[in-house]
Amino acid sequence: MQRAIGRVALFLQRPSNLFISAGILSGGIICIKSAPHIFSGLLFTQLYQSHNRQGAPCQLVSSQKREFRDVCQDLCIKPKGYDVFVISQFGIMWRGLPWFSSGVKFGIPEILQDNPDVSTERFPEPIKSKLNSEEGQKLKKALSFSQNARKFALAKELSLIQKNFPMYSIVLAPCFITANFGLVALLQITNLVALPNYILLILLTIPLYCVYQFAMSIITEKTDLKCDEKLIELGAAYRQGGVEYYEKRLEKNIALRKLLGKKGEKLFTYYGNEKPAGFFGLRSFGAPITQKLNRMQKSLNDQ
After folding, report:
1. pLDDT by residue (tens digit) across 52-77?
2. Using the 8-state DSSP alphabet, how is residue 125 labeled?
3. Contact status, residue 135 vs residue 264, Cβ threshold 8 Å
4. d(Cα 90, Cα 39) in Å, to the nearest integer?
5. In 3D, which of 171, 200, 202, 204 has the Cα closest to residue 188?
6. What is the pTM of this model?
7. How far apart are alpha carbons 179 and 185 in whole angstroms?
8. CB pairs under 8 A, 24+ apart, for 202-208?
């Protein structure tokens, strides 16, 4: 092991080898991050598709088909590149992009319909045993959406797909890897720091990774808000749906925060926003839900 580390350290001492390593790592990261979207048809559907008690895949109900078609029409999207199916999760999930050969695998939750089934068997422990409590009833109520809210939820995810959202991470990560190795090569060539290259790589990786997480959070939040702005322009129905959708999400998160105890407190804030994740909590899942709700309410009042 020590001999292998020594060989790697010796290999990285040459500036040309640093750029070779950067190219190999960047290519590997691109492959890893793009694989779930390029090859989405191999595992994604099998992993998340909902099945009935007989083991057969659940089919989209007529309202789900109609709402997806209507939203695509409102957003001027051709649904041809989308493979839509039913999933057992409580939120919409998707992989792929329309211009990829495999298209988009778009999973609509089984509960995203009129009179959804929110029976006890759909929930894992420890939520299942607490569903009869006040917070459990609030959780089940928060999982039922009107047609406008359901269409808003579909439109929000389709807008992210239109903006090629996965490409930000696929492109940005290799850029930071290349910057890391490039800085080390620059420091070696200029003799500014008298340290072995592998130590410089380690020292620079942590701050650059934090910058990457912070940059991705900013991009995610900006894209999130831009998608909302686009949906606001679609009319009052989407604005009303947006208000209800974000209100229900806050209600769901607040209920989960109490039902899950300490784990819930780590996932959600007191007001129902999702807490950042990642290294030092720098990675955001999007703009705060309360902020998006306030923007939707303001747009609805200003119409």
Report:
1. 888 888 899 999 999 999 999 999 99
2. T
3. no
4. 24
5. 200
6. 0.90
7. 10
8. 204/180, 205/180, 208/176, 208/179, 208/180
